[in-house]
Design goal:
alpha/beta; 3 domains; binds FE2/S2 (inorganic) cluster; single chain; Rossmann fold; about 25% strand; about 325 residues; ten-stranded mixed beta sheet; four-stranded antiparallel beta sheet
């Protein structure tokens, strides 16, 4: 399964936009994904910009779709991403400089906060930078949503042939357990583990300089709970020296699932293990492991439901792959 199937990127005719477009085209080429170039502006004004952007994408072997829309830029790009069922929105970091850490006024920040899809923030200050991802740093705080983000980041790294490292910021004892557990879940050899102390956003950003890509969830990384949930991904997106992938791990509903994707979603306050098959069939199962009731976790690589507590594993249909459970995940009415 490709990590991303449809990538969307804004084409605005500026040098920084060109950097983001090229990063998106390169990634689309590496993943075999479709690329959509969107220009938002006055009627008819974007044709030349889109033509130039499409030509640039062609140099990466990508025949991109182009789209011109009129409207408020951030809102229009976000709604187009949802409408086109894009998996990934690529944006440049223009407007996200160190002087505007918590300013949400810039377009990239608005997009980052409201996007219905994953966001790749591309550093645009050095136009010669290649945006090829060979080393990825996956941040975790041990939460369920962080596990989703690290799984997703790992699937992308695998697709790109990149090495991964894990970072946890906080208590040493807990961090050691979280890092070992996360590394075991990723089922890969030789994962570097980084345990840091201090402010999670600062530490993750500091270590990011040694990597090409940092992966964070759009919720989580709460560290000692002193940090408001959205601040860490937001600050890392602003401050890290590397490109930053913000994985959307919250607010998923049944209707957000993409073909081949599963997630634990909430339906009427109940946790449901939901999966949308490539053929359009949806599966809705109890997300409670039938061994002792832990919440199962979607494994995007194997397309299975895995229980983090004692290792039970279920097919996407709920059938048992291995115990200790002796019962399949039961279907639920939605
Ligand atoms: S609760 Fe899931 S394996 Fe034990």
């Amino acid at each position: 399964m490709s990590a991303y199937r449809r990538i969307i990127v804004g084409a605005h005719g500026s040098p920084t936009s060109a950097v983001a477009e090229e990063a998106a085209a390169r990634l689309a080429n590496q993943l075999g994904a479709e690329l959509v170039l969107i220009n938002v502006g006055e009627t008819g004004s974007g044709e030349d910009i889109l033509r130039a952007a499409a030509n640039r994408a062609r140099t990466f072997g990508i025949e991109a779709q182009t789209l011109h829309r009129v409207g408020e830029v951030a809102e229009t790009i976000v709604s187009a991403a949802a409408e086109l069922r894009a998996d990934l929105l690529v944006i440049g970091d223009h407007g996200m400089g160190p002087d505007s850490h918590f300013s949400l006024g810039g377009i990239p920040s608005q997009v980052a906060h409201h996007s219905p899809v994953d966001i790749l923030v591309v550093r645009t200050s050095d136009p010669t930078r290649e945006h090829t991802y060979r080393r990825a740093l996956l941040a975790t705080d041990g939460s369920l949503t962080a596990h989703q983000a690290t799984r997703h980041g790992d699937a992308l790294a695998q697709a790109l042939g990149a090495e991964v490292a894990l970072i946890y910021v906080g208590d040493e004892l807990i961090g050691d357990i979280v890092l070992r557990d996360t590394a075991a879940r990723l089922d890969r050899d030789g994962i570097e583990r980084i345990l840091a102390k201090g402010n999670p956003a600062v530490q993750i950003s500091r270590h990011a300089g040694d990597y090409d890509l940092v992966v964070v969830g759009n919720k989580g990384m709460t560290g000692s709970r002193r940090y408001i949930q959205r601040i860490v991904p937001s600050r890392v997106a602003h401050e890290a020296g590397s490109d930053v992938l913000i994985v959307r791990t919250v607010s998923r509903s049944f209707f957000d699932l993409r073909p081949g994707e599963g997630a634990v979603v909430e339906v009427d306050g109940e946790k449901v293990a939901a999966y949308l098959h490539d053929d359009g069939t949806t599966y809705a199962l109890s997300a409670r492991c039938q061994h002792m009731g832990c919440l199962v976790d979607w494994n995007s690589r194997a397309r299975t439901w895995d229980c983090p507590c004692h290792g039970s594993r279920y097919e996407y249909s709920g059938a048992i792959i291995n115990g200790p459970t002796t019962k399949p995940l039961p279907p639920v009415e939605t």
